TrEMBL record:
It comes from the Bacteria. Keywords: Glycosyltransferase, Transferase. It comes from Nocardioides lentus. This is Glycosyltransferase. The keyword Transferase applies. The lineage of its organism: Bacteria, Bacillati, Actinomycetota, Actinomycetes, Propionibacteriales. Pathway: Cell wall biogenesis; cell wall polysaccharide biosynthesis. Gene3D superfamilies: Spore Coat Polysaccharide Biosynthesis Protein SpsA, Chain A (3.90.550.10).
Length: 275
């Protein structure tokens, strides 16, 4: 049986140094039986510099909308559509900030081949700026998976769990499973909730959720704020859309922190931005 054709999909706007390091991490992957390990699709969201990082043949362009919000859902859908057009049977989505472990792509491909009705997520380690330059050949020494999500040991697989924990930093699924989800809901724009929504769409489609110890990703450090106050308007807008779809508000921790800063306020039907 031949190995399935795999595509690694990333969406990007800026983050050129991080994307360069991600490309390097993916270049360490060895393909099964000497074949190329994966196809590569990078969706450049209003960023003409991306082709200089990854090569023009691997880039699909998506202009920014007039409101300037990053079209993350639409970009991931476009990347998946391009990967499927090229013949991908396994889709691996990797956030632009994430490095792939040496065996991550192969592990995802194997798990999807074994259980194609499962959406697989690998553990994600948030790297410290003190670890730079990141040692691509020794990333496993930096393993420290995010504590809020399952993190099976290498070689282990876990199935089930709370779909609310699904995130889009690193995950993989079969082409058929992707079609069953309907993809990301493009009504979400800007920051937040589009990946939690995809998890609920996958659950509603009858797909399983799995956690894969052999598919680690390593999130490169970048300055940020906690909570992400710069995205407060997006969080409220997308949260309200999600609540209308599924009956509950996502990103509750962030909303509580934003409320403590006086940026949002709770209402009977959820939350609103403070003018």
């Amino acid at each position: 049986m031949s190995a399935p054709r795999v595509a690694v999909v990333t969406v990007a706007h800026g983050r050129h140094a991080h994307l360069t390091e991600q490309q390097r991490s993916l270049s360490t992957v060895a393909g099964p039986a000497g074949t190329p390990a994966h196809d590569r699709v990078v969706v450049a969201m209003g960023d003409p510099r991306i082709p200089a990082v990854v090569g023009r043949d691997d880039v699909v362009d998506l202009p920014l909308p007039a409101d300037g919000r990053l079209p993350l859902a639409a970009a991931r859908n476009l990347g998946a559509a391009e990967a499927l057009r090229r013949g991908a049977e396994v889709l691996v989505f990797l956030d632009v900030d994430c490095l792939a472990g040496p065996g991550t792509v192969a592990a995802y491909a194997a798990a999807v081949a074994d259980e194609p009705d499962v959406v697989w997520c690998g553990p994600v380690t948030y790297l410290s700026p003190d670890d730079r330059p990141y040692p691509l050949e020794r990333l496993a020494e930096l393993d420290d998976p995010h504590p809020a999500r399952p993190a099976p040991a290498p070689g282990a697989r876990e199935r089930g769990g709370d779909w609310a924990l699904f995130w889009s930093l690193s995950f993989a699924l079969s082409a058929d499973a992707w079609r069953r989800t309907g993809g990301f809901d493009e009504a979400y724009t800007g920051y937040g909730a589009e990946d939690t929504d995809l998890g609920q769409r996958a659950r509603a489609a009858g797909l399983g959720l799995g956690w894969l110890g052999d598919a680690p990703a390593y999130h490169q450090h970048h300055p940020t704020s906690d909570p992400p106050v710069q995205h407060a308007a997006d969080i409220v807008r997308n949260g309200r859309l999600f609540a209308a779809r599924w009956g509950w508000w996502p990103m509750g921790g962030w909303l509580e922190q934003l409320a403590a800063r006086g940026l949002v306020v709770r209402e009977d039907d959820g939350w609103r931005l403070v003018p």
